[in-house]
Amino acid sequence: MSKWTYSDKVKDHFMNPRNILREDNEADFHGIGQTGNIKCGDEMIVYIKVDPANLTITECKWRTYGCASAIASTSILSEMVIGMTLDQAYAITAKDILKELGGLPDNKVHCSVLGDKALRAAIDDYYGKNGMEDRIKTQSAKIVCECMQVTDEDIEHAVLEGVRSFSELQDMTKIGTGCGECHENAQAVMSGYIQKHFGL
């Protein structure tokens, strides 16, 4: 028998995922966010209910077409965010999820970005539906990598943090780790920001 390469916590959340949306009751939720690309094998949808009095998440459900890592990552994320304010939940990163899981194999780390990006999309959806468009943070961002939902703003942020090569950009954002069709455009966007900010 081959050795299980995931942590016990990942295995638990994969075998016994929490908060999966099993009913067709999408209309009951206040915000819905979708990310990923079925062509790449991973797609994530996150559903949230929000207490309007204090803008805290009272319920977080999800559905996915993805691997064990994507399932475990979103399962644990759905537990983490309940009780958080929308601002707190929006700030959760893939690194936070990985820490809670006890890590993932290097070739599966990119799966952990699906849940937090779908969550942010759900929060933005809530803001849009409730007259709080000024709080939406991704409205002006342009998607460069459809599979990993990496935007031009994500690339600019990476450049400002010191990224200078495409391999470094992939390490930080997981861009181009799905179908790979965005490589040329992503490199051009990265080069543009390097030139803009550093004249290199």
Would you write up a description of this structure?
β1 (31-37) and β2 (42-51) form a beta hairpin. The chain is an alpha+beta fold and 200 residues long. It folds into two domains: 1-139, Sufe protein. Chain: A; 140-200, Arc Repressor Mutant, subunit A. Helices cover 43% and strands 16% of the residues. The protein is built from eight helices and five strands; from the N terminus they run αβββααααββααα.
List the helices and strands and how they pair.
Blueprint: H1 8-15, E1 31-37, E2 42-51, E3 56-65, H2 68-81, H3 86-90, H4 94-101, H5 112-129, E4 143-145, E5 150-151, H6 152-160, H7 166-173, H8 183-198
Antiparallel strand pairs: 1-2, 2-3, 4-5
Helix pairs in contact: 1-2, 2-4, 2-5, 4-5, 6-8
Distance between the termini: 52 Å
List the helices and strands in order: HEEEHHHHEEHHH
Tell me the fraction of residues in β-strands, as a range: 15-25%
What is the name of the CATH class of the largest domain? Alpha Beta
